[in-house]
Amino acid sequence: MEADLETMDLKQLRELRGQVDRAIANYEDRRKRDARAAAEEAARQHGFSLSDLTSERGARGARKTAGTEARYANPQDASQTWSGRGRRPRWVQEMLEAGGKLEDAAV
Questions:
Q1: Which domain holds residue 21?
Q2: Is residue 1 part of a domain?
Q3: Please, how many CA atoms are within 13 Å of residue 34, restricted to the half-sphere of its CB?
Q4: Is residue 81 a part of any domain in this protein?
Q5: Residues 6 or more apart from 39 whose CB is under 8 A from it?
Q6: What is the pLDDT of residues 7-30, one digit of tens each?
């Protein structure tokens, strides 16, 4: 996949950067899922669950609640994410005020 960056305008370059950032974030997520599945399988082979081997319980023994997954990522910086719950982050507000759509930031 060759892209002629010299002929692209600023909007196209920013879109490309957003696509690359999202692709990197998705790649890292896939790698984490694969690693977790491998760790769960290794624990299972030894007669344990992964939670038996990790500290997934708080001081009182209650399970920690899992955070919600990111549904949106900043097209300018994929490390900035939002689950779609709660107050909108500044980057979401700025994107919407600039005429962007929330769907443009979907992960």
A1: 7-105
A2: no
A3: 6
A4: yes
A5: 50
A6: 999 999 999 999 999 999 999 999
What the block records as the tokens of 78 is 């994929």
pTM of the predicted model as reported, rounded to 2 decimal places: 0.41
Q: Give the count of domains, the chain.
A: 1
CA atoms of 101 and 65, how far apart (whole Å)? 31
Q: What is the DSSP string of 26-43?
A: HHHHHHHHHHHHHHHHHH
26-77, pLDDT tens digit by residue? 999 999 999 999 999 999 999 988 888 886 554 445 555 567 888 999 988 8
Read off the DSSP letter of residue 14.
H
Does residue 64 lie within any of the structural domains? yes
Is there a domain that residue 92 lies in? yes
Q: Report how far residue 74's alpha carbon sits from residue 85's, in angstroms, rounded to the nearest whole number.
A: 15
